[in-house]
Write a structure and sequence with these properties.
The chain has 10 helices and 18 strands. It is of the alpha/beta class.
Length: 405
């Protein structure tokens, strides 16, 4: 079997690459070990960066019934005070919540409709590089050899493609570890509002509740590996968090957990793992491009998938151009986030930041936009990215959107 470009992994990063390539008339094959729809451990939140990338790809929110627009955010300080941070109420939206089981299936279907070939339940077992081609080897009953000019690896944090190329990272467990559970019959504040709890004992991590509509919510927390809490204690810590009165009140007395709860590692080390290999570009979690301050990664996954596809379209040997593009887009923001992490680990700093950003309507609105990646983390210190309206632009999807009920 042959394909000009093989994409390993049908999640947001891989599907984004496939959509861009297929719409340009290129031959692209997406393989994934899973059958879609499939669940994916995630907070299910979409930032403005992710929304703008989805809009560019042509994803229609009207085709996803569980799509919920978020208009404001409630943030609880380590001191226990709560502040509301409204997102801009102008055209478009700056944040949304969509279960990954629905979102990923819709994006992969968009790739298929654009002309990409999609082969689910296809496990990659190895790669072989020879001159100007790379062979992707798959296992199972339909195992075969796929010869390609380019390989885009969107196969997750422990990328089998990376290992097969000898680029694996021994004993790497990620910078973040997150834990989430779905709830139904939510009747409190969490039914409609996105909530972030900066619990003093979790910093620089945090807990969240993201509204899914119809009385459901995605509730969870994330911690930095090597911090105050060991990853092995997350189940016990989860019980402790759920017993805290302000979290119980936010969910309401009728809230019922949906089994099972799940935990997952999050890679966040842009530039600290190889972005490319022979005839190969790593995207999404396989490139460890998650924001190290928040653990958010969907927007970065979509961006890297698009950049990989654009490199294929513009260059005969795209790997070097792709690596340069990723560093240009994300390296400064990664450095900014890393510089802030040790500060935010101190409760008094986080309290002070929230007190300062909650001073006026302008500071609340723009802090919310900064949190939700409406503009790059390090925008103020990267003048090359300055442009007119960079702090006042509209949100994504300015046409009709479904709002959180």
């Amino acid at each position: 079997m042959r394909a000009e470009t093989v994409v390993v992994g049908g999640g947001p990063a891989g599907s984004a690459a496939a959509i861009v390539l297929a719409r340009a008339g290129r031959d692209v094959l997406v393989v994934d070990k899973a059958a879609f729809p499939r669940d994916k451990c995630c907070g299910d939140g979409l930032t403005a960066l992710a929304l703008r990338e989805f809009e560019f790809l042509g994803l229609d929110p009207g085709n996803i019934e569980s799509w919920n627009v978020v208009r404001d955010v409630a943030v609880r300080s380590p001191s226990g005070t709560e502040q509301r941070y409204p997102l801009p109420d102008g055209p478009g939206c700056h944040a949304a919540v969509v279960p990954r089981i629905d979102l990923d299936a819709a994006v992969l279907e968009l790739a298929r409709s654009a002309g990409a070939r999609v082969e689910p339940e296809c496990t990659v077992t190895g790669t072989e590089v020879s001159g100007n081609t790379i062979d992707v080897l798959t296992g199972g009953k339909g195992g075969h050899r796929i010869r390609a000019s380019n390989l885009i690896a969107a196969d997750g944090m422990w990328s089998p493609v990376r290992k097969s190329l000898g680029l694996g990272i021994d004993q790497y467990l990620g910078e973040w570890h997150a834990f989430r559970q779905y709830y139904r019959s939510v009747t409190g504040q969490a039914q409609q509002q996105l909530i972030v709890w900066f619990e003093p004992d979790l910093l620089p991590g945090y807990a969240w509740s993201f509204p899914l509509g119809r009385g459901r919510a995605n509730v969870g927390f994330g911690i930095r590996r090597g911090g105050r809490h060991a990853v092995g204690d997350m189940k016990r810590l989860w019980s402790d968090l759920l017993a805290r009165p302000h979290i119980q009140q936010a969910l309401g007395a009728e809230a019922v957990a949906e089994a099972p709860h799940k935990a997952w590692p999050i890679p966040a080390r842009i530039g600290r793992v190889p972005l490319v290999g022979p005839r190969t570009m790593f995207v999404g979690d396989a490139a460890a491009v998650t924001d190290p301050m928040t653990g958010e990664g969907i927007g970065q996954a979509l961006l890297t998938g698009r950049l990989a596809a654009e490199a294929v379209l513009a260059h005969d040997n795209p790997t070097a151009h792709y690596a340069k593009a990723v560093r240009s887009e994300l390296a400064a923001d990664d450095r900014m986030s890393r510089a802030l992490i040790p500060l935010l680990a101190r409760p008094w700093v986080t309290r002070g930041v929230l007190r300062l950003t909650g001073t006026t309507a302008w500071t609340r609105r723009n802090f919310a936009r900064w949190m939700f990646e409406d503009y790059p983390r390090a925008l103020l210190v990267t003048p090359r990215r300055w442009e007119r309206g960079m702090f006042t632009g509209p949100g994504a999807y300015q046409r009709r959107l479904r709002s959180t009920p």
